[in-house]
Design a protein that fits this description.
5-stranded antiparallel β-sheet, mainly beta, 246 residues, globular, Immunoglobulin-like
Length: 246
C-alpha cells in the first residue's frame, strides 16, 4: 500500500534515543474504530467527531481512536488514498459476526461492537475500568521493529488471540476534487496509514508479538501516533494502548 511520505524518522520523549516506548495503562482501555471514506458525503461529520477526541483528557488513557478508510466507495469518482481492501475486509468480518446484510459508512465499532452514534446511543460506551495489566509497545528506532507484550492479571481462557498495531496520521488534509465531496478540503485525524496483525505468542511472561520493520511511514511535517490492541476470535478487545510517537 502506498502510504504518505517515505520518512521513517520518529520522535518521542519517553525513554532514550534507541527506543520508543508506549507503556500502557493498568486498566482496560476502549478501542474506537471508525470506518469511513473520502468518497462518502456522510463521513466528514463522523470524522470531525472523531477529531474532537484530540482534546479529550481521556485520550491515550481510556480512549484509543482509529479511522480505517474502506475502498468500496472509490468508484464514485474519487479514489481514497488512505483506503485499503484489507480495511474493507476487516469491517466485513465484523458485519458477519452480527449478520449484517450490508457494509456502510460511517460506521463506529467500539470494543468490537457496533455503536450507532446519534441513533439512541449518544454516549460513547467506555470499557469497564477493570484491572487487566498494561499492554506495552516498544519500537526500535534503528530498525523500526516493534514488540508488543502483555502480562495479564488473570489467565485468559482463549488460546487464540491476535495482536494488532495501527500506525496513524494526524492533522492530514486532502483536497477532494471529485465525487460526493468534490471541492471540499477534508482533515483527518487518527487515520490508519499502516496496519499489521500477528497471532499472539504465549509464554510464561504473558502474551507478545513481534513485528518486523520498517512498518512506519509518515509525512515528516505531520504528528503521528500508534495504537496496539489484543483481540479474541469473537472480535472482543482484551486490552489496548497507544499514544503519539512523533
Amino acid at each position: 500500500m502506498v502510504l504518505l511520505g517515505i520518512c521513517l524518522g520518529l520522535w518521542i520523549a519517553h525513554l532514550n534515543a534507541e527506543e520508543i516506548v508506549l507503556p500502557g495503562q493498568n486498566t482496560k482501555g476502549t478501542l474506537v474504530e471508525l470506518y469511513a471514506s473520502e468518497a462518502c458525503s456522510s463521513c466528514p461529520p463522523a470524522e470531525k467527531w472523531l477529531s474532537h477526541l484530540k482534546n479529550d483528557p481521556r485520550l491515550w488513557k481510556e480512549i484509543f481512536p482509529v479511522a480505517f478508510h474502506v475502498d468500496y466507495w472509490d468508484n464514485l469518482g474519487w479514489p481514497d488514498r488512505f483506503a485499503s481492501k484489507a480495511y474493507t475486509l476487516r469491517q466485513g468480518d465484523y458485519a458477519k459476526r452480527w449478520n449484517a446484510a450490508n457494509l456502510y459508512t460511517p460506521e463506529f465499532i467500539v470494543d468490537g461492537r457496533e455503536w450507532r452514534r446519534g441513533f439512541g446511543e449518544p454516549e460513547l460506551p467506555l470499557a469497564k475500568p477493570e484491572v487487566t495489566g498494561p499492554l506495552q509497545v516498544v519500537i526500535q528506532r534503528d530498525t523500526g521493529s516493534v514488540r508488543v507484550s502483555h502480562a495479564p492479571i488473570a489467565s485468559t481462557a482463549s488460546p487464540h488471540l491476535t495482536i494488532h498495531v495501527a500506525w496513524l496520521g494526524m492533522n492530514i488534509s486532502s483536497e477532494v476534487k471529485a465525487g460526493e465531496n468534490g471541492g471540499r478540503t477534508l482533515v483527518h485525524d487518527f487515520v490508519v496509514l499502516d496496519f499489521q496483525s500477528q497471532t499472539a505468542t504465549f509464554t510464561k511472561e504473558g502474551i507478545s508479538a513481534e513485528f518486523s520493520g520498517p512498518v512506519i511511514r509518515f509525512a515528516s511535517d505531520h504528528p503521528a501516533a500508534a495504537v496496539a490492541w489484543i483481540s479474541g476470535d469473537d472480535g472482543s478487545i482484551m486490552q489496548v494502548t497507544g499514544g503519539l510517537i512523533k
